[in-house]
Design brief:
The protein contains four helices and 13 strands. The protein is α+β, with helices and mostly antiparallel strands. Strand 9 and strand 10 form a beta hairpin. The longest helix has 36 residues. It is globular, with a radius of gyration of 24 Å.
Length: 288
């Protein structure tokens, strides 16, 4: 009889806990609703101009080109050998440098004898710059300033006089059927060419990768197609980087975070923490 009473008592306590939990959830919902009505809660919303020309220009300002060029003569830039899109990950605040993430394929050829450049395709002068922005559109970097991990390269670049803005990586996991935009440049890069902004949807959302159905360029002898191109959300945040071999596949934010951690032998659970570590290294490097 005593055991039966104990069982009944436990059941009653659990029922009370469930009721209390439900009441607490209801109270939280009510508070959030009141805050939202008072304008204290700002919901994460899609950009009203997602997919428009304005949206195109907004995401384009985050991007640069990582170029591999053959040896030039008399100090001149050599012929373009290959390129991929680079995505500025962070910008030094008080020191002139930035870090770019990019597909690592064009940086992985040990037999290549040439130069590596970051090209600011959309650079334009501001009130603090000289008119000769073209001279600053190309900044050379060395392979000693590159870290590579599982298809992703992190490149340290001196900023020079060109304005640059870091991309924001989405901290939300993507979901099936989510709308995304693929940004890519023309197969043969030429100054003045605008990029393509192609809408599509996520067809599969995995832990570190996603699949999408955006129209992609087919790589040929003169280009690498959309390999390394960024995928943006409707909020203008980076949600993926196109794979080097399968352009329907993209590494998501979680995949990027894990590879950055591996580069620096860290185990940071959030993107902000690993970026702060990268910033500290960049600050120290720029002082040398």
């Amino acid at each position: 009889m005593d055991q039966a009473k104990e069982v009944d008592q436990v059941k009653m306590e659990k029922e009370v806990e469930v009721e209390v939990s439900a009441d607490e959830d209801a109270e939280v919902d009510e508070v959030e609703m009141e805050m939202e009505m008072e304008g204290l809660v700002v919901e994460d919303e899609d950009l009203n101009n997602a997919g428009s020309d304005e949206f195109h220009e907004e995401v384009k300002k985050f991007l640069v080109e990582v170029q591999r060029r053959k040896q030039g003569n008399d100090g001149k830039k050599g012929e373009l050998d290959s390129y991929t899109i680079g995505i500025p990950l962070l910008v030094g605040k008080s020191h002139p440098y930035f870090y770019v993430i990019a597909d690592s394929a064009i940086l992985s050829d040990p037999n290549f004898n040439g130069t590596y450049l970051v090209y600011f395709r959309d650079a334009s002068p501001n009130e603090n710059q000289t008119p000769k922005v073209k001279d600053a559109q190309h900044v050379q970097f060395h392979l000693s300033d590159v870290k590579i991990q599982d298809g992703i390269a992190l490149i340290y670049v001196p900023r020079g006089k060109v304005p640059i803005q870091a991309v924001e990586i989405s901290d939300r996991p993507v979901c099936d059927n989510q709308t995304v935009y693929l940004f890519s440049y023309e197969p043969i890069p030429r100054e003045g060419k605008k990029g393509r902004l192609t809408p599509g949807n996520v067809t599969f959302a995995g832990l570190e990768f996603l699949r999408h159905d955006c129209d992609t360029l087919v790589a040929d002898d003169s280009s690498r197609g959309d390999q390394g191109s960024p995928l943006f959300s409707t909020r203008g945040q980076l949600v993926g980087i196109i794979d080097a071999e399968d352009t329907r596949l993209a590494m998501n934010g979680e995949g990027i975070r894990k590879r950055l951690n591996a580069m620096f032998n860290r185990n940071d659970e959030c993107m902000d923490a690993i970026l702060q570590h990268v910033r500290t290294i960049g600050d120290e490097k720029s002082r040398c």
